[in-house]
Amino acid sequence: MAKILRIHTLPADEPVLRAPNRAVTFPLSADVKKLIADMKETVKKAPGIGLAAPQVGANLKLAVVHLEEFGLKTFALLNPLIVSRSIKKSIMQEGCLSIPGFFGQVKRPSRVEVEAYSETGKPVLIKGEGLLAKVLQHEIDHVNGVLIADKAEKSKSK
């Protein structure tokens, strides 16, 4: 049964959030399979729309995306890499489960293409635009040790 994981937050957990992350190897170990299930449960309960492994203390290139209210089943991305970005950019307010109460205007490409592996080890190509593009970029930033506080143009805390 999946469990809710502790989400690491700033400033106390900054070293974990910024540490280098290693690639996920296949076949997946039982521990990584459990981590994925736990991350899916955690992002749903948080509530959030994305969660990266470093946010729960696992230094792996792994993220989950939770956009069920937009018609997408919650899915995991293993070893995600942005392979294409649109020239056109847009600004969207973003929050982060690891920086409670912080919201910032972040300028990002409007569309991206991401190569990753599914939980079954199959290569996938995800073409995202709008909110999906923003979530993909935000979570891939996390697996690369980058936080929205590093990118926000105008920010505020609530």
What is the succession of H and E elements?
Answer: HHEEEEEEEHHE
**What is the name of the CATH superfamily?**
Peptide deformylase
**Multimerization status:** single chain
Shape: globular
Largest sheet: 5 strands, antiparallel
Report the span from N to C terminus: 34 Å
Name of the CATH architecture: Alpha-Beta Complex
SSE topology sketch:
Elements: H1 14-18, H2 30-45, E1 50-52, E2 62-65, E3 75-85, E4 89-95, E5 102-109, E6 111-117, E7 123-129, H3 131-143, H4 148-151, E8 154-157
Antiparallel strand pairs: 1-2, 2-3, 3-6, 4-5, 5-8, 6-7
GO molecular function, one term: metal ion binding
Keywords: Hydrolase, Iron, Metal-binding, Protein biosynthesis
EC number: 3.5.1.88
Briefly say what this structure is.
This protein is an alpha+beta fold. The protein has helices at residues 14-18, 30-45, 131-143, 148-151, and strands spanning 50-52, 62-65, 75-85, 89-95, 102-109, 111-117, 123-129, 154-157.
Describe what you observe in this structure:
This protein is an alpha+beta fold. It has a single domain, classed as Peptide Deformylase. It has 4 helices and 8 strands; from the N terminus they run ααβββββββααβ. Strands 1-2-3-6-7 form a 5-stranded antiparallel β-sheet. Strands 4-5-8 form a 3-stranded antiparallel β-sheet. Strand 4 and strand 5 form a beta hairpin. The longest helix has 16 residues, at 30-45. The radius of gyration is 15 Å and the shape is globular. The mean pLDDT is 94.
List the keywords.
158 residues; Peptide Deformylase; globular
